[in-house]
Amino acid sequence: MDYLVLLLCLHLLWGLIQALSFVGTRVQRTPSNLPPGRRPLPLIGNLLELGKLPHKSLARLARTYGPIMKLQLGFVTTVVISSPALAKEILRTHDAIFVSRTIPDTITAHNHDQLGLPWLPISPLFRKLRKMYNSHLLSNTKLDSNQQLRSMKVEELVCYVRRCAHSGDAIDIGEAAFRTSLNSLSNTVFSLDMTCPSNSAKELKELVWQIMAEVGKPNLADYFPVLKKTDPQGLKRRTELCFGEMFDIFDVLIKKRWQLRMQSGSVTSNDVLDALLDVVEEKSEDMDISLVKHLLLDFFVAGTETTSSTLEWAMAELLCNSEKLSRAQTELHEVIGKGNRMEEVDIPRLPYLQAIVKETFRLHPPFPLLLPRKSEADTQVGGFTIPKGAQVLINAWAIGRDPSIWVNPNEFVPERFLGSDIDLRGSNFELVPFGGGRRSCPGLPLATRMLHLKLGSLINAFNWRLEDGVTPETMNMEDKFGVSVQRAQPLKVVALPA
Ligand code: HEM
């Protein structure tokens, strides 16, 4: 089907190009000294080279063409960066030039590209929203004040696993972690669970999955702008519907909260929604309800799947490396006490658990190519010119597995981070799962708290084994590409009382 769509699109394009040649096309100025890369085919350029797992295909190509290479993806000139030194040039040295992004067509649904933080160019609105994230929503003080909300959700996950441990049922750990991520986030934002049917949560969970699926699919309209109007794969139309349904859910919750706030003597919830409504009410930041809804959309789409798939990978790696699992359990038993409840404040006292999380991000960054950046001017990087308007991708997956940086790069060795000062904040360019510079992920403090707490709680409370018939040797460790990279095959595990 996709192949037929591709052929139809190419046919349309060919017609258009011929028509343009009558009218006279604009000749584009091409700077000299472009990065090297494989010669593109007519029209489709290097699109077919991306394959099903673009981060891996691009890593392979970089072995031939080097850490900076150029590809022509349909009409989009793309430069791929695959070394820490060059990632630093993009994310720090030339931060001002590479600060904006290329916009996927699906993201223009409901004008999200003009109201959602990840896609805005640097502007007063961008600064306002970043400030909102950093100071009102995800600052350490704010997160400290609502950590109990997340702690309760993790305790519920532990209770669920305990029930499965008693019945001997195998657990789909990614699914369970996704539910906990969604509920941790919905409690941080709305002080309620969103995966219980009475709260339309079933809908929200399915909507988040569907948005990830639609936005993650390769979209011909992104590579051939002439197709944007027709949306031949229907991806934008379906994203439009999902965004609309999500906004309807938010509308109901916001309306209820306004009513509650208006009742005299009502106590505020100290959650993200209250913080946002305070800002709307103060009118100091020019924040309106439409902006609040777009911000909430980003919160749920960016914050759920990323953390749950990382937890699933961490568990998969630990189950393949039982001595690392034992070492982590020993640390937890010594610091927290066997089976005792872990809290976010315990994280700094658990260096091995932190090393496991870093090692998981090194091998399995949820956004292996980060989010795309765009060049605002012809710029010299690594001795080549990145032309103005080019899309720039940083292959964090390739950097994480580069043998010139890491010893035994494909092995899961958390010990490499013990005593090392490499952190996840984007200042060490060999490990950049959250990006870097002005556009780095503002969700990092929340994501890392959720991840350490969930993983630590699960491995402190239980012993684990793979489901019957699966061994570390036969386990499928392949991934599949979407908005974020997930395991190709869900991890099924059996918990045993510790
Ligand atoms: C494991 C979890 C997560 C990972 C690995 C991750 C990764 C990323 C990456 C790579 C970027 C692009 C950075 C760049 O261009 O330099 C990003 C941006 C962003 N992330 Fe996250 N993220 C995670 C969780 C979250 C959470 C929990 C939230 C919010 C609740 C969030 C909200 C955002 C937003 C709003 C942006 C856009 C920032 C901007 O463009 O200025 N993320 N994230």
TrEMBL record:
According to the UniProt entry, where is the signal peptide?
A: 1-19
What protein is this chain from?
A: Geraniol 8-hydroxylase-like
| Tree of life domain | Eukaryota
Any matching Pfam family: p450
Keyword terms of this UniProt record: Heme, Iron, Metal-binding, Monooxygenase, Oxidoreductase, Signal
Could you tell me which InterPro entries the record lists for this protein?
A: Cyt_P450, Cyt_P450_CS, Cyt_P450_E_grp-I, Cyt_P450_sf
| Record bears the keyword Oxidoreductase | yes
Keyword Metal-binding on entry: yes
Which family does the record assign? Belongs to the cytochrome P450 family.
